[in-house]
Amino acid sequence: MKGSMQPRRFRIDKVYWETDDTFTHELIPIDEGRFFNFHPGQFNMIYIFGVGEIPISICGDPDINTRLYHTTRVVGDVTKRKQHLKVGDLLGIRGPFGNGWPVEKAKGRDVVVIAGGIGLAPLRPIIYHFLNHRDDYESITLIYGTRSPDKILYRKELEEWSSRLDMDVSVTVDAAGRTWKGPVGVVTKLIPRIISNPDNSTAFVCGPEIMMRFTAVELLKRNFAEQNIFLSMERNHKCGIGFCGHCQLGSYFLCKDGPVFSYDKLKSYLSLKEV
Amino acid sequence: MENLEKILSEHPFFRDLDEDSLNLIVGCASNVRFEKDDMIIREGDKADKFYIIREGSVALEIQGPGKGKITIDTLSDGEILGWSWLFPPYHWRFDGHAQDRVRAIGLDGKCLREKCEENHDLGYELLKRFSQIIDQRLQATRLQLLDIYGIPS
Amino acid sequence: MYQEVDMAKLNPESVVILQKDDLAKLLNILRSHSYQTIGPTLRENAIVYDEIQGMEDLPIGWTDSQEKGSYRLEKRNDDAYFGYNVGPYSWKTYLSPARVRVCNASRSENGFNVVQETGNAPNYAFIGVRPCDVKAIKILDKVFINDFCVDNVYGNRRKQSFIVAVNCTEAGNTCFCSSMGTGPKSEEGFDLCLTEIVTEQSHFFVTEIGSDKALEVLEALSPQTASESEIKEAERRIENAAQSMGRNLNTDRIHDLMFDNYRHPQWDDIAERCLSCANCTMVCPTCFCNTVEEKTDLEGDNAERWRIWDSCFTLEYSYIHGGSVRHSTKSRYRQWMTHKLASWHDQFDTSGCVGCGRCITWCPVGIDITEEVSAIRNSSTVPEETVDQPR
Question: Model-level pTM?
Answer without folding.
Answer: 0.91
